[in-house]
Amino acid sequence: MSYQVLARKWRPQCYADVVGQRHVLAVLSNSCTRDRLHHAYLFSGSRGVGKTTLARLFAKGLNCATGITATPCRQCGPCQEIEQGRFVDLLEIDAASRTKVEDTRELLDNIHYAPASGRFKIYLIDEVHMLSRHSFNALLKTLEEPPPHVKFLLATTDPQKLPATLLSRCLQLHLQLLSVEKIEAQLQKIVQAEALEAEPQALRLLARAAQGSLRDALTLTDQALAIGEGRLSVSLVSQLLGTLDTQQAVALVEALHQAEAASLLKLVDQLIAQGRDCEQLLVEMAAVLHQIALQQWLPQPLGEPGTGAVRIRELAQRIAPPDLQLYYQTLLMGRQELPLAPDPRMGVEMTLLRALAFHPKQIERGDPAGPSGSAEASVADPVVDSPLASRISTSDRPKRVAPTERPRSLAPVKNVSVMQERQASEESSLVTHAESEPSETTQLLAIHQQLRGQQRQHRQQRQQSTTMISSPGALPQPPLSKTGPAERAAASPRLAPAVPKVPPDNRAARPSSWKAAAERDEWSAEVARLTLPKRIEQLALNSVCEAISPQEIRLHLRTAQRHLNRPEAPDLLASALSELRGQPVTVTILDSEDVSQRTPLEWRQAIDQEQLSAARQALLADEHLQRLQRDFGAEIDEATIQPL
User: What's domain 180-241's architecture?
Assistant: First the structure.
């Protein structure tokens, strides 16, 4: 006997064999049981979810020799003939190949004849949306009022293309895509029945690649069995599908979190060399980030240890939730832009480099250049072994030039003259910086400043003609000369920029709120030294510590933050404190409304207020700012005041 593919061999022969689609099975079963049969049924849904199979099962129940039933006997002549595909009263029509109106008319000419051997003459029209407009019009009247012995079963993957007049004449049943778990369970059942050797993770990969279609899953399984000589392994299935297994995706995420560009791009090189699909690489990494996010918010086992569950749990404790969302968003954007890349590999590499560019470690360093560069040499060599790095020579890499610092005003000034003084100050700083640049740069800056001077002259003439000069008391402006901007800036007296002066020793001596809190409060200092997950760190910051003994502490958590107290919180805190103190520590967490003592977070907030008040007083006491307020009516936007 010739080999029969799995998709045909395991086609359901009764309602109990159908995977999923319980809402559709309920409609069909109740229709047969209660004898409330519609004359036309429309089965819609994606490919491989069971539209034609359910139509055949329904036809079997309508023509079973035992009567109209939801559980056909499968022993009578009609049941066996329908299973074998030779029942004369079940007419299966492929609308994709018979689209003409002549085909539809030929079909309708025979509709009035009684069935040859069955109870009903059933017309199963597959891909009905492929019929032409004239064919639909020819079918409408008969579809609305067919003879009593005729039933129409229509199937389509695109119901939106059907005219509303046809949809209104049918009982529509939409089949849903199957979940990965249901497909995996069916594959496991088939593998056991066929006595095949298969790894569980390989079946998981096949179920995910099927994208909700059981038929596609069985077809892929047949293909994998042909390559693997009857055995399904993770490596073989990954090579067939061009996807990554969980361990490889976790390794990529680990390298991304640790900002190891060399390791990250080396892994990408290896995976692409093995034939992995570039888009699937981003998809699998995003799937791992999804598992990590679930682990952070719903701590529970995610699977067998061999599937990377242990490493995922470790990453869930090390990666902060905001960083995780940033990685996820970057990968999604990279996948969306992948068709626009010069080639898929470049798109993947640029996506991962973008994630590294916005990596939290780079932000903390204040170095946008890369993981190993400084402000002066921003493009170092973090990826020596990668083909990407070999394509970029050191001489071709751009040199960063330190930008000219511009003073940031702390208050809006309502006077034209003061604004002009600021522009002159900016021009002076630009020209001073240009003296150290090559001659070409100096010439470009001079031309740029000359154009700005002409624009400012025209602007001042318009302001004088419309008498829109600022308030009385403003200092008269000296006439503009034809000298360059540097000479004008040096020759004209001007006020100092409106930046308040704070005594250097006070600014240097003022600590940050975190450091100051650690100096004032022992528990704040200890929390600052602990390495904790973000949620547990927030719990510690909102708690007051009561030392029962050197080995036992009691935390009084603010009632408003009781949601931070998860079951695993005491153990995580105890582990971190034991490692810090060098001896075993037990932790008990209680809710408390006692505000007589401050939590570390309250210490920081109080110190922030002290520093903000000191900054405000220093700003108001500044002589230059007082002169701007007195002479030109300047105002201070106190909402923008921040301590240095």
Answer: Orthogonal Bundle (1.10)
